[in-house]
């Protein structure tokens, strides 16, 4: 496929419209569930912030990272490779092959979950020393072994739902699990205080496992004996899974090391500010990125051998993602201190500069991520591995340099530096694999939205608060209106027929 073809705008035909419609419908389903999850999460975060303060929020973030890191190793990447294998099997229409892959993912995950949970509990003392510099948190780390068990177990039914593209079931399972986890978190922290954090995490991951397993049972999958399935599928699952595991380990390990850098350089209070800023920055962009991983990854995997189709899908996904994420990111930058006070408390407003840096990085992340799925869909293990290694080195290296120099805000600058570097590198990797090039429209949109983000950032750092907020509000409103008009013009069928005349009249 030539670069010229790859760079062309999608033709004005019904197929692209249907494709944009599919992107928006799947994003709407995930987005609606994400909105509910976000509201529940806000209540949970607010409760933790008021009950435990910045130090408690920082401890929650560190515990989560310990579970994520141990879960990444224990899971061996089976969940991520399983999505790819199930998507391929689903695309073939071979029910026996689908059933075999599903059974293998579930069986392997169960074995790995037990091993991972027991291992973390056994290594609780050295893990506590490595993380906190003492063994005072060893009991809590041992309890987190149960969280690792449920995390790896829960990844299997989530993989099944994602690989079969049962987006609605996945969304409902997500809402149910987050609600149950939030209620348990608030109750345990009210009852036990700081000592309730680790049991609360266990309850949250257990709720995820139960909810996902119940919804995965609704999938129409041909039953296959687990032993036979594991023997047949273990090698390909673990082979590709090792690459995914390494990637997850690098990503989570980098996040873990950065928290340790912040904790040791600035204290647990600064770790709490970091967690609060990261939590908010992840919320808005998160629904776009989650929808991308949930529906877009299986779709692009199914057509991975067709470079023209892959490049068309990536350009379409990138456009929709930018349109949806851009205005919210700009608004969050402009209103950072207000958002922090609402989501947490006034004790967290010192994290406003850090939140703005994270938001700028998130804008770049939205630009880069669709291209990364070309690497995943193609199964290009070596480029994927080395880009992840380099990304971890860049982020941790920048954080180690900047945090001791300028404080916790240096971690935000490191995140921006990571995605400046990663966006450039992943573009050339994707171009080498599929001949990908940005469409002209996407290049203009990216420059406009990133430019608006930078203007808002500059105003917040150099102008009076109210002037900067006014500029940010105008840019957020302008990009929001443009995004709404553009999204509805790309896929008008997503608007109910009865409302189309009104929408056309309002939007011109």
UniProtKB/TrEMBL annotation:
InterPro entries: Poly_Biosynth_Transport, WzxE. Pfam families: Polysacc_synt_3. GO terms for biological process: enterobacterial common antigen biosynthetic process. The chain crosses the membrane at residues 23-42, 104-132, 138-158, 170-191, 197-216, 237-262, 268-289, 322-343, 355-377, 384-406, 412-430, 442-459. Keywords: Cell membrane, Membrane, Transmembrane, Transmembrane helix. It comes from the Bacteria. It is a multi-pass membrane protein. GO terms for cellular component: plasma membrane. It is found in: Cell membrane. This is O-antigen translocase.
């Amino acid at each position: 496929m030539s670069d010229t073809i790859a760079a062309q705008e999608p033709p004005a035909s019904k197929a692209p419209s249907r494709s944009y419609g599919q992107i928006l419908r799947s994003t709407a389903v995930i987005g609606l569930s994400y909105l509910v999850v976000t509201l529940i999460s806000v209540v949970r975060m607010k409760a933790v912030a008021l009950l435990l303060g910045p130090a408690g929020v920082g401890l929650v973030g560190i515990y989560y990272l310990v579970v994520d890191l141990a879960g990444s190793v224990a899971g061996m990447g089976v969940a991520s490779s399983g999505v790819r294998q199930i998507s391929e099997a689903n695309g073939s229409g071979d029910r026996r092959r689908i059933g075999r892959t599903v059974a293998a993912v579930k069986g392997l995950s169960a074995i790995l979950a037990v091993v991972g949970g027991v291992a973390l509990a056994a290594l609780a003392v050295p893990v506590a020393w490595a993380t906190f510099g003492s063994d005072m948190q060893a009991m809590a780390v041992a309890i987190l072994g149960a969280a690792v068990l449920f995390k790896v177990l829960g990844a299997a039914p989530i993989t099944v739902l994602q690989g079969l593209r049962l987006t609605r079931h996945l969304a409902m399972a997500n809402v149910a699990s987050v609600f149950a986890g939030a209620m348990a978190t608030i109750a345990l922290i009210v009852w036990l205080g700081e000592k309730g954090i680790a049991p609360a995490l266990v309850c949250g991951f257990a709720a995820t496992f139960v909810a996902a397993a119940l919804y995965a049972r609704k999938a129409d999958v041909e039953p296959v004996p687990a032993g036979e399935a594991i023997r047949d599928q273990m090698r390909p699952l673990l082979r590709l899974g090792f690459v995914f595991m390494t990637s997850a380990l690098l990503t989570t390990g980098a996040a873990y090391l950065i928290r340790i850098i912040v904790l040791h350089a600035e204290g647990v209070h600064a770790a709490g500010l970091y967690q609060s800023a990261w939590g908010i920055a992840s919320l808005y962009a998160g629904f776009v990125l989650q929808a991308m991983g949930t529906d877009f990854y299986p779709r692009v995997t199914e057509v991975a051998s067709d470079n023209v189709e892959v490049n068309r899908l990536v350009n379409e996904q990138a456009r929709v993602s930018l349109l949806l994420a851009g205005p919210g990111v700009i608004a969050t930058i402009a209103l950072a201190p207000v958002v922090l006070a609402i989501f947490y408390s006034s004790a967290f407003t010192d994290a406003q500069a850090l939140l703005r840096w994270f938001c700028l990085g998130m804008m770049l992340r939205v630009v880069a991520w669709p291209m990364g799925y070309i690497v995943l869909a193609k199964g290009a293990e070596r480029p994927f591995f080395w880009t992840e290694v380099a990304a971890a080195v860049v982020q941790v290296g920048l954080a180690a340099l900047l945090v001791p120099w300028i404080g916790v805000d240096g971690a935000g600058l490191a995140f921006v530096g990571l995605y400046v570097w990663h966006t450039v590198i992943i573009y050339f990797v994707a171009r080498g694999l599929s001949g990908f090039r940005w469409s002209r429209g996407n290049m203009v949109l990216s420059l406009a939205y990133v430019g608006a983000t930078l203007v808002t950032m500059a105003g917040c750092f150099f102008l009076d608060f109210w002037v900067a907020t006014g500029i940010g509000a105008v840019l957020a409103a302008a990009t929001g209106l443009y995004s709404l008009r553009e999204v509805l013009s790309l896929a008008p069928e997503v608007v109910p027929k009865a409302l189309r005349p009104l929408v056309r009249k309002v939007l011109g």
